[in-house]
Amino acid sequence: MSIIIDRRLNDRNKNAVNRQRFLRRYKEQIRKSVTDVVARRSITDMEQSGVVNIPVKDISEPSFQHGGNGGDREYVNAGNREFNTGDKIPRPTGGSGKGSGEGEGGDSEDNFSFALSREEFMSLFFDDLELPHLVRNALGETRDFKWRRAGYTPSGVPANLSVSRSLRNSMARRIAIGAPLRRQLLELEAAQAAAEEIEAMRGRIARIPFVEEVDLRYRHRVKEPQPISRAVMFCLMDVSASMTEDKKDLAKRFFTLLYLFLSRKYEKVELIFIRHTDDAQEVDEDTFFHDTKSGGTVVLSALKLMQEIAVARYPSDSWNIYGAQVSDGDAFGADPEKSRACLVEQLLPLSRYFAYIEVPDQADRPSPLTHAYQRIDSDRFAMKSVMARNEVYPVLRELFKREATV
Amino acid sequence: MSISKLDGGLISTGAEWTFELLERYDHAIHDIAANEFGLDTYPNQIEIIASEQMLDAYASAGLPIGYPHWSYGKEFIRNEQAYRKGARGLAYEIVINSDPCISYLMEENTMAMQALVIAHACYGHNSFFKGNYLFRQWTSADAIIDYMVFARNYVMHCEETYGSERVEEVLDSCHALMSHGVDRYRHPTPLSVAEERDRQREREEYAWRQYDEIWRTLPTRVGAATSQKAAAGRFPAEPQENLLYFIEKYAPKLEPWQRELVRIVRKTAQYFYPQSQTKVMNEGWATFWHYTLLQRMFDKSQVDSGFMIEALASHTNVTMQRGFDQRGYGGLNPYALGFAMMCDIRRICEAPTQEDRDWFPEIAGGDWQKVLDFAMRNYKDESFIGQFLSPRLMREFHLFAVADHEDDDDLVVDSIHNEHGFRRLRRLLATQYNRDQLLPDIQVTQYERSGDRSLTLRHQRSRKRPLAEEANEVLRHLARLWGFTVRLETSDENGRLESVCEVRN
Question: Do A179 and A208 share a domain, yes or no?
Answer without folding.
Answer: yes
